[in-house]
Fold this sequence. Notes:
The complex is a heterodimer of chains A (173) and B (112).
Chain A: H1 2-19, H2 28-52, H3 56-83, H4 91-108, H5 112-141, H6 145-172
Helix pairs in contact in A: 1-4, 1-5, 2-3, 2-4, 2-5, 3-6, 5-6
Chain B: H1 7-20, E1 30-35, E2 40-41, E3 44-48, E4 52-57, E5 63-67, E6 73-76, E7 81-85, E8 90-95, E9 103-109
Parallel strand pairs in B: 1-4, 3-9
Antiparallel strand pairs in B: 1-2, 4-7, 5-6, 5-8, 8-9
Domain DUF4142 (chain A): 27-167
Organism (chain A): Methylobacterium oxalidis
Signal peptide (chain A): 1-21
Amino acid sequence: MRMRGTAALAALVLSTITAGAQGTKPNDAQIAHIAYTAGQIDIKAAELALQKSHNKEVRAFAEDMMRDHKAVNDKALALVKKLNVTPQDNDTSKGLVKQADEKEASLKKLNGAAFDKAYAENEVGFHKTVNGALESTLIPSASNPDLKDLLRTGLKIFQGHEQHAEHVVQALK
Amino acid sequence: MRWLRKGRPLRLAWLLGLAACPVSSAVAETIQIRVEDLGFVPAQVSAHVGDTVEWVSRDFVAHTATARDGRWDVAIPADGKGRITLTRAGAVAYYCRYHPGMIGSISITAPP
Lengths: 173, 112
């Protein structure tokens, strides 16, 4: 189930981002919305982990996710304000939210070690997907240099998250 | 009470020497390490016991400089600073607890 969910998310993100809203690459307002939405999704997942998990490593990871994604999203909000850009909702953001809601519902049904494992594995898959989208589409498509820089820094941070999540998955085995 | 062990007479002599000769070449230094783009720059530094290491961050996310042997754990706030005064010689590998891919090392020797 997990692999199917991750593969479906990856397919959705890559296809919708690549295709864009009108068959073209996403614009900066859409890119900002997608990046911000992805951050909010991971913050929400971390909040759930902090409510449900008693595992020290999982909790520390979740706290790291809250701290970093909040910092990146605060920076993103400040940037769009400075650029006078209104983030624009789009099919990719909507798809991300839909998938995240479904994942949240399934995580909520789990407890203890089963929750920890599912949360950590989902974090690996989620970061892998978002990082792939940043690298292949969002960063190359961004036209504003400040937005491009922020996305590049975000990618570096999130690649660290992906490795960290993989480490947590291994530690839970 | 570790300071009571073998290093103490030497350190005491050094301190007394410092007191007698205030203008000494052995004045403790502050060594700055930049924290930028999720990295410690430079990643390797040399220092002496008594020196202060100061990490100056330009990143907008928080970091730590955490010694792998557990001797210190320094918080480095976003766009802020963290510092530690080195009290023991040795080679210390450190990393960021929040971003374990960030690594550095300090080679600490006795004061000159």
